[in-house]
Design a protein that fits this description.
The protein is mainly alpha-helical. The protein contains 11 helices and 2 strands. It starts with a helix and ends in a 7-residue tail after the last helix.
């Protein structure tokens, strides 16, 4: 049985009161592995709960220019840890410790620059370890939580995405991660 199939069953068994040694014996694995699976589940639950709380605070403030520690912003946006680490490295190397939603939108889709080529106009494209796929993932991630970040953010984000798409069309720029597939970012 694959971990993707097995782990939810292990978590369910444990939540129903089955002891860790019994679960380990049932699957023929170590108690250490069962502990790790359960620890990862708790960590994910805390991450999601903290993200919800942060999004609620952002929505209540309805002030996208409000600065916050970048770790908090990345948790609120529910970016996977590896993407958060890449972004933190990028911003820390530039001496930035706090970001607002506006700052992050400027990183993804600048407000003041005419977008001709993503490589020339979009700071995220020039960031180390942020390729087209990660860029599209970040936009998609922000799309998933935009309703939870306040009306002011949603209006500005929608306007910027529309402008990016129009510029891409006007400049015959195509990116499969952004504009096609099952869940296009734009």
């Amino acid at each position: 049985m694959l971990p993707a199939e097995r782990n939810p069953i292990i978590i369910k068994m444990h939540s129903e009161g089955c002891p860790i040694p019994e679960i380990a014996s049932h699957y023929g694995v170590s108690t250490w592995l069962i502990d790790n699976i359960l620890r990862d589940k708790r960590r994910r639950d805390l991450f999601e709960s903290r993200g919800r709380d942060l999004r609620h605070n952002i929505q209540t403030a309805n002030h996208p220019a409000l600065k916050m520690p970048m770790d908090d912003l990345f948790v609120a946006l529910q970016f996977p840890i590896h993407i958060g680490k890449r972004l933190k490295e990028h911003f820390t190397s530039k001496g930035i410790q706090e970001l607002s939603l506006i700052d992050f939108m400027d990183f993804l889709i600048p407000n003041s620059v005419k977008i001709t080529s993503p490589y020339d106009s979009i700071p995220a494209y020039r960031a180390k370890h942020v390729g087209r796929k990660t860029y599209a993932y970040m936009i998609t991630g922000m799309n998933l939580v935009e309703d939870e970040l306040g009306v002011a953010f949603k209006d500005e984000w929608t306007r910027r995405k529309k402008r990016l798409k129009e510029c891409m069309i006007a400049n015959n720029y195509s990116d499969s991660y952004l504009t096609s597939g099952k869940n296009p970012a734009l």
